[in-house]
Specification:
This protein has about 150 residues and is mainly beta. It contains two helices and eight strands. The termini are far apart.
Length: about 150
């Protein structure tokens, strides 16, 4: 009978692990409610208004890509894409006003020609025991226009 003592604990850990893989626990760490991009003239960086909340510290790999609307649908703009890994902590604020712009968001300056665009951003949260989880957001469609 002594040989069975450890099994309930192993079963409990297995059940907790399985549960952790099926629940949308990423929201316990991070939520992105909206990424709104203002229209901008050619040669300037569109300004973003972002509503996000970091609830707990974590590390994530983010990917941001700008997509342009064409006759064939949405296509990725090859020079307006970037990815990196960052540490996130509660209380860290995003830049204010026009400092939170497309160049800051994708970590490099991008000058878009006239057209209609949107930004798709994905964060892959590295949550240790809980595995990795993805939080994604698609911005509004915004216009880059001739002055």
């Amino acid at each position: 009978m002594k040989r069975l003592r450890g099994w309930p604990g192993i079963l409990l850990l297995g059940w907790l692990w399985l549960l952790s893989q099926t629940l949308p626990i990423q929201h316990y760490w991070f939520e992105v409610d909206s990424v709104f991009v203002l229209g901008a003239p050619i040669g300037s960086q569109p300004v973003l208004i972002v509503d996000r909340t970091v609830h707990r510290p974590f590390e994530a790999t983010w990917t941001a890509e700008v997509q342009r609307y064409t006759a064939d649908g949405w296509e990725t703009v090859p020079f307006a894409y970037n990815s990196a890994t960052n540490l996130y902590s509660p209380g860290e604020a995003l830049p204010k006003g026009d400092r939170l712009n497309l160049a800051w968001w994708i970590n490099k300056p991008v000058f878009l020609p006239a057209g209609i665009y949107r930004i798709e951003t994905r964060w892959t949260l590295n949550l240790g025991f809980f595995g990795s989880r993805v939080v994604s957001n698609m911005s509004n469609a915004f216009r880059v226009y001739v002055r």
